[in-house]
Amino acid sequence: MNGTLALVAFAASVCAAAMVEAYWYRRQLLKIPFRIHVNGTRGKSSVTRLIAAGLRSGGIRTCAKTTGTLARMILPDGKELPIFRPDRANVIEQKRIVQTAVGHNADALVIECMALQPLLQSVCELKLVRSTHGVITNARADHLDVMGPTRLDVARALSATTPISGNMFTAEDRADSLSVMQEACDDRASQLMVTTADDANAITQDELARFSYLEHAENVALALKVCQSMGVAREVALQGMWDAQPDPGAMRVHAQEVHGDTWHFVNAFAANDPESTTRIWDAAYDYFPGVSQRVLVMNCRVDRADRSTTMAEAVATWAPADRYVIIGSGTDIFLRRLLKRGIHPDKVLCLGNSSGPELVESVLESFRREQRVTTAPRPHFQSGTAVAERTEEMESSAMMLMGIGNVAGPGMALADHFGQDQGWERFRTPVTRPARVLEMV
């Protein structure tokens, strides 16, 4: 009997301590008047940074936290600190972020959702953030093994971060997904604010060209709508966004002269769902002047087997690349699916964890071998003119390399190589390009 009483007393003390801790944490949250919870399939980190920069520019003391390529805490002066993780990422770290924001007397906290499991997304919102403003960038077919199996299931999972009696902002444009989000808003007495195509088109090419990286017009329009809802003028918010430091995984293009021709490297490793990467590949395919050879670099992860499968299915339907380079871990999944879908083995290079220089040399050697075969003596019935035309075509080596799939591991190393190696310079997007290129930037 005494043991039972002791157990009951212990349980009661644990419950009391939990209630006190929950009460104290709730009071901490209330010290931050504006809490913006950013969720979505693509663009969460970019939108988090854009909103925070716009609010800071408008005089609102703002902290932010991103979970993307490299987890970062952004302080009110724009200074960034890495997030210390003694073990694997855990949603409980959001509590530390809130406490840090309170310690810096923040009036606003822009925080990226770090949960994938639908239940955990709900816990993050209802227990850890309790946002005043929710953001869902978009709802696309990614992480289907966790949030799927369908795109609408992803929309339902993301809607778990809808605030209670607040405002939910989204740039999603599909009617079925918007219907799911509206249901969540109705359930939690929040208002759904949709960023439309007209809003995105209002972001001019001149405004996009002032970013130090390639930003999506819909991301800028979405962030502007959030900032304007909090009283920050459009021009003021934009100035802050232009001056802000981009996410390490932000999409950039670097260029270098190689044997008289310009090579372009498009860092789209952070684009890891089929829809986003399809848009970028289509927009970049004929974008760069003089490019005659296109190389797609897929960075695989052994713990993202589902992504490798869906990406291979998408890649096989795109305008064809001249080479498909597979790097990272678990590459066999992507390779098998690619070959099954009809991509010729001669066009595929599996390079594992090759460095930037090794990858470039392997790609060059692959084209050299093809050129040697092309210019080899042909049977007498093939005209010399045809051979000369093929030789001339192969000698034109202006090239585009695009990295997709995953940022981590060799993807980041490759991006660092092209971004920092001597001779590679950032490619400025010409403002006279066709309007469809806005889908890429």
TrEMBL record:
SUPFAM superfamilies, per the entry: MurD-like peptide ligases, catalytic domain (SSF53623)
Residues forming the Mur ligase central domain are 38-154
- Gene3D superfamilies per UniProt: Mur-like, catalytic domain (3.40.1190.10)
Mind telling me which InterPro entries this protein's record contains? Capsule_biosynth_CapB, Mur-like_cat_sf, Mur_ligase_cen, MurCDEF_pg_biosynth
Q: Which GO terms describe its molecular function?
A: acid-amino acid ligase activity; ATP binding
Q: Name one GO biological process term.
A: capsule polysaccharide biosynthetic process
Q: What is this protein called?
A: Poly-gamma-glutamate synthase PgsB
Q: Origin organism of this chain?
A: Rhodopirellula bahusiensis
Protein's gene: pgsB
